[in-house]
Amino acid sequence: MDAADRGGRGDAAARWTEAAGVSEHAYHVVAGACTLVGLAILIYRRRTVGPVFSATTRNDKLMYAVLTLVIVLGLAATVAANIAGGGYDYRSTVSPWFRSVFYLRPDPDLMVGVPILFQLHALSAMLLFCVWPFTRLVHMLTAPVGYLTRPYIVYRSRDAHAGSRSPRRGWEHMS
Fold it and tell me: How much is the pLDDT for 171?
């Protein structure tokens, strides 16, 4: 990787935020708040919408726990390093390391000297990527826009005595 790929001031996200006039602190506060709001929306919907709640599996619950862990570790790392500490530019180490893993050319030298909270955050994110395909969160990759407007799926019981109406013709229980 060349110097531009390694991040720092050459990192695209850093250039974008600088060009938009957004400070590092404001970027972290807004990104953290948006992430927490998104997590709250996901969990609220899962807990309050009956059909969604009843379709929740153990894998989904595990995914929410791991997702919460990833977010909390990321926020803790940012607070510890950039608010309480002297500052740490993860964009020049962790971000390029993640890209190197994504390109299937991992560069472990990029993670040398990275604060432990950032390392735990990256490790927990890898765990989330491993759990993700076995949960409902995978649906965000399929057709997320359609999920905003589609009606809920109506599940009907096969029990002949369920419900207050008699079954419609053609739907009678076969003996």
Answer: 55
Rounded Cα distance between 40 and 42, Å, is: 5
Query: What is the total residue count of the chain?
Result: 175
Q: Is 86 contained in some domain?
A: yes
pLDDT one-digit tens code per residue, 89-104: 888 888 899 999 999 9
**Rounded distance, CA 170 to CA 101, Å?**
56
Q: What is the pLDDT, as a whole number, of residue 6?
A: 40
b/e 153-172 (16+ beta carbons within 10 angstroms → b): eeeeeeeeeeeeeeeeeeee
At position 101, the amino acid (one-letter code) is: V
CA distance 22 to 98: 24
Helix axes 116-131, 58-78, angle to 10 degrees: 160
Is the Cβ–Cβ distance between 135 and 63 less than 8 Å? yes
Q: What is the mean pLDDT of the chain?
A: 81
Q: Is residue 162 part of a domain?
A: no
pTM of the model: 0.69
Number of domains in the chain: 1
- Tell me the CB-side half-sphere exposure of residue 33, using CA atoms within 13 A: 6
